[in-house]
């Protein structure tokens, strides 16, 4: 099951969809994402700190827990290779001009496709809209 960074972050944070994301993962053998998620999840935690939703101590604890999970292989994180970046550009070039595709979204979408995933799980409306142009089904809880 491929999760984007927002859904990985929801596993650690108590946000509106967090419970449903955690429920979705029950019984799932493998969760995959791009290594790009390491930076994005850390940025989500930092945004929560900046906006006052987390204390400095909570931020550090979440960052440590996530880092430990990454390092111990709880999450299968695919590398960002030159091939992924070139395929991303190719897929972008064939997407309609009215589809909003940001760099991180493009990396996630291309990685999911490259791994042979059929679906990508996210609550990001832009990624959900762009998913079909990458040959994927965008899913949300």
Structural write-up:
The protein has 141 residues and is mainly α. It has one domain (5-139): Rossmann fold (3-Layer(aba) Sandwich), CATH 3.40.50. 55% of the residues lie in helices and 9% in strands. The strands form two sheets. Strands 1-2 form a two-stranded parallel sheet. The chain has a two-stranded parallel sheet with strand order 3-4. Helix 1 (5-12) packs across helix 2 (18-25), helix 3 (36-50) runs antiparallel to helix 4 and helix 5 crosses helix 6. The longest helix is centred in the middle third of the chain and has 17 residues, at 56-72. The radius of gyration is 15 Å and the shape is globular.
Mean pLDDT: 96
Strand order of the largest sheet: 1-2
Helix content: 55-70%
User: With helices defined by DSSP (H or I, 4 residues minimum), what is the helix count?
Assistant: 7
Shape: globular
Please identify the top-level CATH class. Answer: Alpha Beta
Q: Enter the CATH topology name.
A: Rossmann fold
Sequence-ordered SSE layout with sheet pairings:
Blueprint (H helix, E strand, L loop, with lengths): L4 H8 L5 H8 L6 E3 L1 H15 L5 H17 L3 E3 L3 H12 L9 H12 L4 E3 L3 H6 L6 E3 L2
Parallel strand pairs: 1-2, 3-4
Helix pairs in contact: 1-2, 1-3, 3-4, 5-6
């Amino acid at each position: 099951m491929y999760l984007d960074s927002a859904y990985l972050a929801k596993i650690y944070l108590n946000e509106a969809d967090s419970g449903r994301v955690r429920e979705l993962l029950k019984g799932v053998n493998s969760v995959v994402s791009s290594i790009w998620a390491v930076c994005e999840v850390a940025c989500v935690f930092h945004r929560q700190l900046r906006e006052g939703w987390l204390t400095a101590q909570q931020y550090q604890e979440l960052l440590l827990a996530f880092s430990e999970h990454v390092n111990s292989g709880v999450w299968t994180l695919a590398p960002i290779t030159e091939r992924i970046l070139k395929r991303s550009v190719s897929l972008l070039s064939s997407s309609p001009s009215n589809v909003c595709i940001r760099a991180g979204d493009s990396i996630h979408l291309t990685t999911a496709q490259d791994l042979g995933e059929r679906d990508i799980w996210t609550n990001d409306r832009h990624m959900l809209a762009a998913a079909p142009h990458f040959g994927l089904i965008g899913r949300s809880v």
